[in-house]
Automatic annotation (TrEMBL):
Keywords: Lyase, Membrane, Nucleotide-binding, Transmembrane, Transmembrane helix. PANTHER family: GUANYLYL CYCLASE (PTHR11920), RECEPTOR-TYPE GUANYLATE CYCLASE GCY-8 (PTHR11920:SF498). It comes from Meloidogyne javanica. One of its GO terms (biological process) is receptor guanylyl cyclase signaling pathway. One of its GO terms (molecular function) is peptide receptor activity. SUPFAM superfamilies: Periplasmic binding protein-like I. One of its GO terms (cellular component) is plasma membrane. The chain crosses the membrane at residues 130-149. This is Guanylate cyclase.
Length: 257
């Protein structure tokens, strides 16, 4: 309309074909605001009096708030083109890279051409890491070795069977022999009237240790596992004034019964 008025063609404002022809291939600056201080840029009309589009490609990273403009798409007029004939706007898009060296990292920078430590790690020293790893490995091996040594010493101590009594270590006596020893008043045996009599069976362990025992029939060779030996050793070591001490156990470890 303004272009038609500038030509002093008052009657042309009523002629749609003339206005449409004046709009073809028209270019003007977009309207801006004082507050924003910006405008819509250059407005170009194509050969069919439609606005030629302007596009841009942006990259939106999921871990960043800033939007990166990658490509600017501007329109340019195709020479020797008539829109009324081919029914096109006679415009095409020109792509211009705004950002070069783009990489989808946090800062958008491309990775270096060569790693910081080199392709073979020749630029970095791993002495500290190797020393720490070797120290930790040595500590683990030392702890394992100490545990195995402690286990071996415990096994050796258990295999000695401190609670086992051999046939030469004790002498079984009946009630008559026990009473005769009491009547003699032997100072070499620790017998008392309370311990003589009843259903208890008596034995002399060592030189002068009086003990009572229980006798069982052994039908097969006895095999003690680790748990059994740990239990018997703990019972052997249990000493208190209010309990009778466990002196030991005698058994036949051979095949003949």
């Amino acid at each position: 309309m303004n272009k038609t008025d500038e030509a002093n063609q008052t009657a042309a404002v009523l002629d749609g074909h003339q206005i449409w022809s004046a709009m073809r291939r028209l270019s003007f600056d977009g309207i801006g605001t004082v507050v924003s201080g910006s405008n819509t840029g250059l407005v170009q009309m194509d050969d069919l009096a439609d606005r030629a589009p302007q596009f841009a490609a942006f990259f939106i990273a999921p871990n960043r708030e800033k939007v990166l403009k990658m490509v600017q798409m501007t329109t340019y007029r195709i020479p020797n083109c008539d829109g009324t004939i081919n029914r096109t706007g006679c415009y095409d898009l020109k792509l211009t890279d705004v950002m070069t060296g783009f990489w989808p990292s946090e800062n958008g920078a491309m990775p270096p051409d060569e790693p910081v430590c080199g392709f073979r790690g020749q630029r970095c020293s791993y002495t500290v890491e190797i020393a720490v790893g070797a120290t930790v490995l040595a500590l683990i091996m030392l702890i394992l070795l100490l545990w195995l040594l402690r286990r071996h010493c415990q096994t050796r101590a258990l295999n000695k069977m401190p609670w086992r009594l051999f046939s030469d270590d004790f002498r079984l006596i009946d009630e008559e022999a026990a009473r005769s020893l009491l009547s003699i008043g032997s100072s070499n045996t620790k017998l008392s009237n309370q311990s003589i009599g009843g259903s208890k069976k008596h034995a002399i362990l060592g030189v002068n240790t009086h003990a009572t025992y229980r006798r069982f029939i052994q039908k097969q060779p006895l095999k003690f596992n680790r748990e059994d030996m740990v239990l018997l050793t703990a019972v052997k070591d249990a000493i208190h004034d209010n309990i009778n001490p466990f002196l030991g156990m005698a058994f036949n470890d051979k095949e003949e019964m």
